[in-house]
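Below is how a single chain appears once it has passed through the pipeline. First comes the sequence as given, then the structure the pipeline wrote out for it. We keep one example in the README because the format questions we get most often are answered faster by looking than by reading.
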Amino acid sequence: MATFIVGFAGGSGSGKSTVIREVQTVLKKLGSTTSTTYLSADSYYRDLSHLPDQDRADRDFDHPDAIEWNLFQQHINDLREGKSIEVPVYNFVTHTRQREKTLLTPASVILVDGILIYWMPELRKLFDLRIFVDVSPDECLARRILRDMEERGRGVKSVIDQWRKTVRPGYDNFVMPTKQFAHLIIPHGGGNSEAIEAIVHRILAHTRQT
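Resulting structure:
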């Protein structure tokens, strides 16, 4: 069976990973034997261990240069070819990669998320189905505040300052322009049952064809 690769792009905090979980849940409820695996571009942020702590925090993580795209693309190709990969483990508190890596085995459907995965033409071509999760910037900011406070130990002021300095400009300059390359746009993110069903239908249609 040919590997089917589905991309999920959208702003930071738009709910890309939530949509992916919902897709996997529906597939299981339907009793599908289709195997899926999940890969996030967030794992491929460049290691900043060579920089002082303050310089790391001041980096623009919403610019395409923040991601090691060559390794990311190679790993997607490896999964497509049926090879297992060792995914980097990124620490968002220290902005460094950990020594350990996560072994990811191939599957018939690869679900990939990242804010910038449609930015480069050569990377866009890897996706058989391109999804864009379209959520208002205000809602994305609210979700980022909750996430970064709970998971990364940050304060509200720090999150808002970063939003104004790099996150919102990065969304306007690099993320939103890639919406035009999506095959399917999902408003509101997670909980959009009609959109989830459409994605699942497309996945199942592929598995039946192959």
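The chain has a mean pLDDT of 92.

See the next section for the split statistics.
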